[in-house]
Amino acid sequence: MKQFILSLSWLLLLFSSEMFSQTYSFTHNSIVRSYIVHLPTGYNASNQYPLVINMHGYTSNASQQQSYSQMNVVADTAKFIVVYPDGVNNAWNAGYGLNSSIDDVGFISALIDTMKNNFSVNANKVFACGMSLGGFMSYRLACELENKIAAIASVTGLMSTGVASSCQNNCPIPVMDFHGTTDPTVNYNGGAGFISADSVIKTWIAKDGCPQTPAATNIPDINTTDGCTVTKYVYSPGQNFSEVIFFKITGGGHTWPGAVPVPSSGNTNKDIKASGEIWNFFRTHSLQCGVNAVSENYTSEKINIFPNPSGGEFIVEGLHSDWELAISNIIGQKIFSKIINEEREIIDLSEVGEGVYILKVSSPDSNIINIQKIIIK
């Protein structure tokens, strides 16, 4: 009875979360394209919110991906917007031979612009993720839309051989990948038209300038009945604060970790929840390329900040008296401010929480001396 009550409570929570979603559409290249928007509870247009684009798999749709991934529940707690777009004929042009005449990269680009025009979206915090073919599409966006998308995550999706060979992105893109070793649909070792999971990871390690040797962690096997275990590999740091994180699910199937099991698709891991892991990854990153990106080093005078990333304590050198040192979060809320009296300052932000922050140094007449990103991990 207790288990039934808990299951009923979860279903009610999921249903109430989807009640805050609404379907919209616009015409792109003479095709009406629809998408579902979920605004987090307490949404206030005077604030700016991160945006996560969550793409369905082949033969699925936006509504099914919304229910299956359970990302709305995470969005309500973490306060970000989720948009679930519909692919034409339940597919994406991810370079895999499906929908080859459809400009889905252009559609997603237009969708981002539409979301920014109609909702309060932080343009520096736009992300893409997807299931299966939606994961393939996420990788294509990382290759072709790095001027708008800050990071991507793929669940049971890999890279088509065409996209892998032609990927010419000029900016490192943080990548997270989840893949089961016994995936019956998108084989872990690759197949006709797509490369293996290991090859995908190697591709992005090279592109992002990450170390070849990862930090590996065996995730506790808290659910011993799900038939699979998880090892997390972290390749970090890379260039421009990028990183590659790979969840290798030994015995895992073609499923979204933490979601409702789909026995016909293999084992669903219950030791992790993909939607939560994806958001914890996304929230530490921001756009590095494009017109909306925050400049990495806006400098008229040299300022040294170290260590960076840090656990919370930073040393800032090269300061002058009467300068203001201010730190804001990625949506512009100031969390620290001080008028400098010394050339060297130690800042303790250990209680602020993990994430990407902006450190700005200004002169007494409010001219900007230096802007840099700092990361708390």
Give a written overview of the molecule.
Helix content is 23%, strand content 30%. The chain has 8 helices and 18 strands. The strands form 3 sheets. It has a 10-stranded mixed beta sheet with strand order 1-2-4-3-5-6-7-10-9-8, with helices on both faces. A hairpin with a 6-residue loop joins β12 and β13. It is globular and about 65 Å long.
Secondary structure layout:
Layout: H1 2-18, E1 21-28, E2 31-38, E3 49-55, H2 62-69, H3 71-78, E4 81-85, H4 104-118, E5 121-131, H5 133-144, E6 151-155, H6 161-166, E7 175-180, H7 197-208, E8 215-218, E9 229-235, E10 244-250, H8 274-282, E11 297-299, E12 304-306, E13 313-317, E14 324-329, E15 334-339, E16 344-348, E17 355-362, E18 368-376
Chain-averaged pLDDT: 89
CATH topology of the largest domain: Rossmann fold
Q: What is the second-level CATH architecture of the largest domain?
A: 3-Layer(aba) Sandwich
N- to C-terminal distance: 41 Å
- The top-level CATH class of the largest domain is Alpha Beta
State the secondary-structure class.
alpha/beta
Poorly predicted spans: 1-16, 295-300
Listing every helix as H and every strand as E from the N terminus to the C terminus, the arrangement reads HEEEHHEHEHEHEHEEEHEEEEEEEE
Q: How would a crystallographer describe the biggest sheet?
A: 10 strands, mixed
Helix content: 10-25%
CATH superfamily of the largest domain: Alpha/Beta hydrolase fold, catalytic domain
Evaluate the radius of gyration.
21 Å
Total beta strand runs: 18
Q: What's the number of structural domains? A: 2
- Name the overall outline: globular
**Spatial arrangement of strands, main beta sheet:** 1-2-4-3-5-6-7-10-9-8
SS element count, helices: 8
Beta content comes to 25-35%
